[in-house]
Amino acid sequence: MKVDGKHFRSIWRERDGWSVGAIDQRRLPHEFVVARMTSCEDAAVAIRDMLVRGAPLIGATAAYGMALAMREDSSDAGLKHAYETLVVARPTAINLKWALGEMRKALAPVDPVERAEAAYVRADEIAEQDIEINRGIAGNGLKLIEAIAAKRPGETVNLLTHCNAGWLATVDWGTATAPIYLAHERGIKIHVWVDETRPRNQGASLTAWELGHHGVPHTVIADNTGGHLMQHGMVDLAIVGTDRVAANGDVCNKIGTYLKALAAHDNGVPFYVALPSPTIDFAVDDGIRDIPIEQRSGTEVTDMTGRTADGRLETVRIVPEGSPVANYAFDVTPARLVTGLITERGVLKPDRASLAEAFPERIAAAAE
Fold first, then answer.
1. Which of 104, 196, 213, 229 registers the highest number of CB atoms within 10 A of its CB?
2. What pLDDT, on a 0 to 100 scale, did the predictor assign at position 83?
3. Cα 356 from chain centre
4. Mind giving me the DSSP string for 98-131?
5. Catalytic residue numbers, as ranges
């Protein structure tokens, strides 16, 4: 994707061939800063502190974290320590565990002397695979947008997103935004309603930033506005991302997704979820019951950071001192509220049979 005409990925190998660069998403939208990771612990901190975020990007970062670890200690004990350090960095996104499993599977049979090189090769493959998967999602999701545009030639197709499932949440292209970017490139008139997505404001700070820099028309809205827009026919299609999809089609995504799905269902608005296949977790049968919901620091709710009129970045408290705060980071949308799952292998029904038929290898991975 592009930032002011220049192509960027969200994560990459630096010119030295071994350290890892990534866009520091904590600093957006006010500052564009590149962070450099030189150790496994750097990668774990980047994931834990949300320097990088989004399930696919978390997976790619973990893979590169494992490669960095192998430069320091490529022994069996080092491999085990790296896995254990990274796998606990964030509990909800299944791509983290998937990527680390892929790395461990690739490295375990390799002579420790050759593990570092092999680790970088596999990490690069995981990053490239994510990009190709997202291109597939773009093409399959584009058909949904084209179908709406064909019914109303010349009119704008209005889409709604929640949180950030853009290229900043992946290595490139994004998941929910991938069809949007492709439609834009194909000349289809589109407009995106961007949920602010409290408490971390990933929609307002990240989705709006990347859409704006890529030239896609959009409008930021308060989280509670989506239902009103749907009631008045101002949303043609809702597309969100996901951090984990259960075997039964339940979808775990940023807190507030469930409420958008309810509003969409009540107003007859198609509600789609875009996901790469590593996000499917066949080890979880029931998303509501079994997916762990991360509870993050209360300061994400009590405090807000922004740019002042004179250009300074300031953090202010918006909640009374002493008021308890709960910060559930995700919720689960039942499969019955999901119109379809946009994957690299087509748009699927959100049920066990469709997922199993399309991705039998994910079933095998869950059994390992």
1. 196
2. 96
3. 22
4. HHHHHHHHHHTTS-GGGHHHHHHHHHHHHHHHHH
5. 243
